[in-house]
Amino acid sequence: MEVSDLLLDRALAIGARSVAVVGTGKNVGKTVVMRAIYRAAIARGMQVGLTSIGRDGEANDFVDAVAKPRLRLAAGTLVAGALGALPRSPALEWCEATEVQSASGALCIVRVRTESELELVGAPTASGLRGSVEALFAHGAEFVAIDGAIDRIAALREEDAVIVSCGAAASASIEAIAGEVRALVALLALPRGDRSIDAVRIEGALTPMRAAELIASGEKRPIVVRDATRVTLRGRALLGALERLSLRVEHPLRPIAVTVNSVGRAGCVEPKALLQAVHAAVKLPTFDLFAASAA
After folding, report:
1. Which of 23, 135, 31 lies closest to 73 in space, CA to CA?
2. CA distance 61 to 139
3. Are the CB atoms for 277 and 173 separated by under 8 Å?
4. Helix (H, G, I), strand (E, B) or coil at 33
5. What is the pLDDT of residue 103?
6. Is 36 helix (H, G, I), strand (E, B) or coil?
7. Residues 8, 77 within the same domain
8. N or C: which end of the chain has fewer CB within 10 A?
9. Shortest CA distance to 162 belongs to which of 138, 134, 181, 141?
């Protein structure tokens, strides 16, 4: 079975109707993972919707002009994308203009009529993402794939799946890559707080300073925030806080798998060693789409 099918099966096994792919940094393979899941779903005859937080499918990176993976979409695919980035073409069937706005215009729902390459500019906010995903479902999508961002995942429903991508583009060593993704998975996997237990409820963000104050005071009660995006600690600081504080969320997420990319712009690491190190760090099924392997 292809790695892409294994990833799709992981999402479907928990009853997810959508999956968001988030990364530890740029160029770790998020778009490649989203595209692979999309193709696996299309191969099964599913009606698939796609959207993004940010920009995807462009020929070259908008920031540094480096070549990027394209999005070649099959006929029947539903897309939520900004009007200014969608081509005026008979290859696309217009479905709806939503009220969600982006820097490239209103977010629109279109259906691909003939196989096409598209540049996808999605909703810039969590609420906009939520609205665009709902619009895709309203127009018949059975499954939605999202190229996501950590600060927008609050838009996801609790039954949705999250896949985390990491790789050599974000860190220079296997140890550093494994440490970064371990912290990110731990953040996304924060459990739901028990409302029957006395807890410290933080209305805004749990910042490094606030966490340090709670640790210094010896706080033993659960620390509850709305969702994972309200915790601003990252990396070792987050892992250290998790050892000393009982962090909880009101709206939990469901990370189901991690993908690795052993190649970065500055160099590469040994693929099998990276796969095994990340798997050991995150305790989740771990996949390498580039090497077609899994742990």
Report:
1. 31
2. 30
3. no
4. helix
5. 81
6. helix
7. yes
8. N
9. 181
**Amino acid in position 237:** A
Range of the domain at 201: 190-249
Question: Measured between alpha carbons, how far is residue 275 from residues 88, 122, 181, 280, 290 in Å?
Answer: 42, 31, 12, 9, 11
Check if the beta carbon of residue 206 is closer than 8 Å to that of residue 231: yes
249 in Cβ contact with 225 (< 8 Å): yes
* Per-residue tokens: 273: 């060693």
Residues 116 and 11 in one domain: yes
Distance CA 47, CA 289 (A): 23
Both 234 and 268 in one domain: the answer is no
* Residues 19 and 128 reside in one and the same domain: yes
Whether 102 is in a domain gets the answer yes
Structural domain contains residue 176: no
b (16+ CB within 10 A) / e for 128-161: bbbbbbebbbebebebbbbbbbbebbbbbeeebb
Structure token pair of residue 103: 């820097």
Which residue has tokens 């790789």? Answer: 167
- What is the DSSP annotation of 140-164? T-SEEEEE--GGGGGGS-TTSEEEE
Mean pLDDT by 10 residues, the chain (295 residues): 92 94 89 93 96 61 52 92 86 89 88 90 85 94 89 76 91 90 96 94 95 97 94 94 96 95 85 97 95 91
**What does DSSP say about strands 267-268 and 263-264: parallel, antiparallel, or unpaired?**
antiparallel
Helix (H) or strand (E) holding 243: helix 235-244
125 DSSP β-pair partners: none
- What is the number of structural domains in the chain? 2
What CATH number is attached to the domain comprising 262? 3.40.50
Residues 149 and 239 in one domain: no
The CA distance from 35 to 55, in Å, is 14
- Nearest-angstrom CA–CA distance, 81 and 63: 19
Burial pattern 28-43, b for ≥16 Cβ within 10 A else e, equals bbbbbbbbbbbbbbbe
Can you read off the two tokens belonging to residue 128? 């906009």
